[in-house]
Design brief:
By secondary structure, the protein is an alpha/beta fold. The protein contains 19 helices and 26 strands. The protein folds into three domains: about 25-325, Glycoside hydrolase, family 3, N-terminal domain (TIM Barrel), CATH 3.20.20.300; about 365-545, Glycoside hydrolase family 3 C-terminal domain (Rossmann fold, 3-Layer(aba) Sandwich); about 605-725, Immunoglobulin-like (Sandwich). The longest helix is centred in the first third of the chain and has 17 residues, at about 110-125. The protein is globular, with a radius of gyration of 26 Å. Residues about 1-20 have low confidence and may be disordered.
Length: about 725
């Protein structure tokens, strides 16, 4: 009876607003629980009990904590003690677009809709922690997990991650922002020691995590596999104690990546709260009932019992875990969730279509009129290949997936659709490549024959989620398109010059054929509604409005990480040095005057826009002020469309090296044909500061700054000088 009363006392007074931060009443309840826990029970809460859960305390009615992979969809159910799928029949979900697509929308409102939908699905599946979103910075186009992240710009990632987190957590499910921090490659990810300046750390690689904590009020953070300055990120004193829990006052729970813990003492003292996956090597092998052997299990318990660690250390971890539980599985007011409903399907399709980027459109190749009676040859393995499976921990068990070919057939009812595979890559497998058994020459010959009979050729290729492509556990081996696609495109052009390319990928690729094709679309891993969304854009039902969230270099050496050689990327297998410092992505291209193939923020439309009349509300600003930038945006074309007005700011004659300009504001605006709108974007003067290593703090330089306004980082329409006093 006493235990039941304790349970009632600690759960009935939960917060009615699941997005609220912890209040005094809840903290008092948490203290009461801690007083009733034995030392062994406290330690047990700090490590896994299965592949995706950590234990509760049954005698007090404290529930288990259940987690799931799923930055763009809740992963299928995994077995308790191995990595096999449990083969449930009711765990098929809506697959949402990968986060590169979400970033390409430049649309924070859609980010919230996305987060709310995926949070509902996680809640319906009875998950307490959704392991995502990822906000690692796109540093090299070879990184196998770039497709899971939000691009190269810290400001864009910061703006887009906050509404996603809020949407998820409105459902009483914790977002778990990952991988904190500097997990910017898969090669040697488990041990590579990243060396970089404090400026690069604070200005480039941390802002999205900081926004997640301070503006998104995220409830959990996942540490990264790699090391930084000699400490593994999952128990890094610098990252977890000094910055996350110190400077940012994070009151949530730090969870390891699976197998990311390496030392009991560091795990105890350096800010880790829950250890997951250690005896699985994070991925591949398992020892039966090994959970008590985790670093934060029996070894942790023994160190406390022997007096090497004070019990207050475990109390802090348990307090954070209980706080997480009050926000999730001990919150009686959270919803029941929903899954595979019409609204989620619509959200997935909307995000996918909004994020597709039109890169080239010679002679208005796109859109293709869906009412005309023409022959369309759809060629390429990615026209039919499933992109929800494979890729590592982000793979999904989708209830359905509309392929590009299926979407095109659905929309182009009057056209004759011809299809040929063209090339083949083999099936997806984690950690290894499996070559295709199909004859490459026969596939090419068949594709050429089909293309020669068509009025229009759509080549749908790119990358996929195989090992050494866009996949966890390994980086790409080269920059060019794999599986002979470049040669195939050249052969197709020889028999039919009316050809457009659709690239499905999460990374930039080399494009030696670019000048010869009429149209180019960058699509992404777009989930359940991928084919329908692509057909929406190809047909013109939806006007293209996506913008690139990362720069496309002409060649690999044009990328800053690769410019400085192997010690910069991928390192020497032990250490790595970020020699480009703060000049990542467009900052590098702009400052070093290296022309990209396609610039950050670039994306065409089926209509035309004009940006004019740039003004700032004042000429002189002081610390704490807001800069109100305005311009006139007009749709001068023939159809409705959306444009992203982008505001960059640069400092003239800075005392430290700076990028020529940095994104500081943007707004996506929809306009009917012939309409115009005054667009206002507000920027905080304090956001113009740089991280000053001389004082280990942010420093706002006085002097002259330039406001740049345009629709991509390399297409600046107008400039204006302002002064900071």
């Amino acid at each position: 009876m006493k235990n039941i009363l304790l349970y009632i006392g600690i759960t009935l007074g939960v917060m009615t607003n699941v997005n609220a931060q912890s209040d005094a009443k809840t903290e008092k309840k948490i203290d009461e629980i801690i007083n009733h826990l034995t030392l062994k029970e406290k330690v047990a809460m700090c490590h896994a009990q299965s592949k995706f859960s950590s234990p509760g305390i049954p005698r007090l009615g404290i529930p288990e904590l259940w987690m799931s992979d799923g930055p763009h969809g809740v992963r299928g159910e995994i077995n308790w003690d191995d990595w096999g799928y449990a083969n449930w029949t009711n765990d098929s979900i809506t697959a949402f677009p990968a986060l590169t697509c979400l970033a390409a929308t430049f649309n924070p409102e859609l980010s919230h809709e996305y987060g709310a939908a995926i949070g509902e699905e996680a809640r319906f599946r009875k998950k307490d922690v959704l392991l995502g979103p990822g906000v690692n910075i796109y540093r090299t186009p070879l990184n196998g997990r770039n497709f899971e992240y939000m691009g190269e710009d810290p400001y864009l990632a910061s703006v887009m991650v906050v509404p996603y987190i809020k949407g998820v957590q409105e459902n009483g499910v914790a977002a778990c922002v990952k991988h904190y921090a500097l997990n910017n490659q898969e090669e040697w990810r488990g041990h590579i020691n990243v060396n970089l300046s404090d400026r690069a750390l604070y200005e480039i690689y941390l802002p999205a995590f900081k926004a997640a904590v301070e503006k998104g009020h995220v409830w959990s953070i996942m540490g990264a596999y790699n090391q930084v300055r000699g400490e593994h990120c999952c128990h890094s004193n610098l990252l977890l104690n000094k910055i996350l829990k110190g400077e940012w006052n994070f009151d949530g729970t730090v969870i390891t990546d699976w197998g990311g813990t390496h030392d009991t003492k560091q795990a105890a003292f350096n800010g880790l709260d829950i250890e997951m996956g250690t005896w699985t090597n994070g991925l591949t092998s398992s020892a039966k009932f090994a959970y008590d052997n985790y670093f934060l299990a029996d070894p942790f318990l023994k160190m406390i019992q022997d007096g090497g660690i004070d019990e207050s250390v475990v109390d802090d971890k348990v307090r954070r875990i209980l706080r997480l539980m009050y926000r999730t599985n001990m919150n009686l007011n959270r919803s029941l969730g929903r899954m595979n409903n019409v609204e989620h399907t619509q959200a997935a399709r909307k995000v996918a279509a909004d994020g597709i980027v039109l890169l080239k459109n010679k002679n208005e190749f796109f859109p293709i009129n869906p009412d005309t009676n023409i022959k369309i040859a759809v060629i390429g393995e990615n026209a039919t290949r499933s992109m929800t499976v494979g890729g590592g921990s982000s793979e999904l068990k989708a209830k359905y997936e509309i392929s590009p070919l299926e979407g095109i057939k659905n929309r182009f009812k009057n056209a004759t659709i011809l299809h040929s595979m063209g090339y083949a890559s083999g099936p997806s497998a984690y950690g290894r490549e499996i070559p295709s058994k199909l004859n490459a020459d026969s596939l090419v010959k068949a594709a050429i024959d089909v293309a020669s009979k068509a009025d229009v050729v759509l080549f749908i290729g790119g990358l996929n989620k195989n090992h050494f492509q866009d996949c966890e556990g390994g980086d790409r081996r080269h920059f060019e398109l794999p599986f002979g696609q470049n040669e195939l495109i050249a052969e197709l052009l020889n028999v039919n010059s009316n050809l457009g390319v659709v690239l499905v990928s999460g990374n930039a690729v080399e494009m030696p054929w670019l000048n010869q094709v009429n149209g180019l679309i960058q699509s992404w891993y777009n989930g359940s509604e991928a084919g329908n969304a692509l057909a929406d854009v190809i047909s013109g039902d939806v006007n293209a409005s996506g913008k690139l969230p990362f720069s496309y270099p002409v060649k690999l050496k044009d990328n800053a990480a690769h410019y400085f050689g192997e010690l910069s990327y991928p390192g020497d297998s032990i250490n790595q040095y970020y020699k480009e410092d703060i000049l990542v992505g467009y900052r590098w291209h702009d400052t070093k005057k290296i022309k990209p193939l396609f610039a950050f923020g670039y994306g065409l439309s089926y209509t035309d826009f004009k940006i004019s009349d740039l003004t700032a509300d004042k000429q002189i600003y002081s610390k704490g002020d807001k800069i109100k930038v305005s311009c006139l945006l007009a749709n001068t074309g023939e159809v409705k469309g959306s444009e992203v007005v982008q505001v960059y700011i640069g400092k003239l004659k800075s005392k430290v090296e700076r990028a020529l300009k940095e994104l500081k504001g943007f707004k996506k605006v929809s306009l009917d044909s012939g309409k115009e709108e005054q667009v206002e974007i507000e920027i905080s003067v304090d956001d113009l500061a740089f991280y000053d290593e001389a004082i280990s703090d942010w420093n706002l330089e006085k002097g002259t700054y330039i406001i740049y306004i345009g629709n991509s980082s390399d297409n600046i329409i107008q400039k204006q000088k302002i002064n900071i006093k």
